Amino acid sequence: MRPLVLGGICLCLAGAAQAADWPADAAVDPNAQNRTLTPRVVVNSGRLEWEPHKRDLTPWPTLSHLDRRATPRPQQANYNPPLRGDPARGREIAMDPARGNCIACHTLPGESWPGSVGQLLLGYKQRGVSDAYVYQQIYDRRVTNPNTVMPPFGTLGVLSDQEIRDLTAYVQSLE
Ligand code: HEC
Questions:
Q1: For the chain: N or C, fewer Cβ within 10 A?
Q2: Pocket residues for ligand 1 (CB within 6 Å)?
């Protein structure tokens, strides 16, 4: 296992220009695959081990108070109907920790450990809101609520147009 290099230390090792983009408490190792590290609990040891993350998360601002990088401005989505979304694919994206991970915050049907931070999305079908509204909430909810904790999946380029369409179809299908 490579040693954990915190942002502050990277400043000396990796050069100021690159390290300045990372929060001071980011778990970053410039030599690791994807540069980002993620902790793994070592069972019954009281220790964490750090391993390379599946994705390079260094360009994205975090919720850390030490992370003072500018966030991209809220963006109005460029949504063109018809929706052409697949609710079954949308459900997969919502449950997948590496993609939507909507389940981390929202209560969704068929999952035993749902999140409780986000609004209840059960019964969304009955609300009768437009696809364009739902698409925008997933693309960048800051347009509706500037103080939202929900990540702007479209603006940050985490999800593609088709993935957001599939998620919109899924949310709109929830009874
Ligand atoms: C980090 C937590 C978090 C994640 C992850 C998250 N959401 Fe949210 N979402 C929220 C919160 C909290 C709200 C409502 C309050 C707010 O804006 O902060 C919300 C609001 C919404 C709304 C708007 C509801 C309405 O009618 O106004 C929709 C739709 C939605 N989320 C769908 C999703 C989908 C789909 C995903 C996955 C791609 C997702 N959310 C991921 C926290 C989250």
A1: C
A2: 94, 100-102, 104-106, 117-119, 134, 137-138, 141, 145, 148-151, 153, 167, 171
Alpha carbon of 33 to ligand 1 centroid (Å): 30
Residue with tokens 């989505």: 77
Mean pLDDT per 10-residue interval, the chain, length 175 residues: 42 43 79 90 92 86 79 94 98 93 89 72 93 98 94 94 98 95
Residues of the chain with CATH 1.10.760.10: 87-173
The amino acid that residue 100 corresponds to is G
**CATH 2.40.50.140, applies to 87-173:** no
Indicate whether this model's pTM tops 0.70: yes
Q: How far apart are CA 142 and CA 75, in angstroms?
A: 8
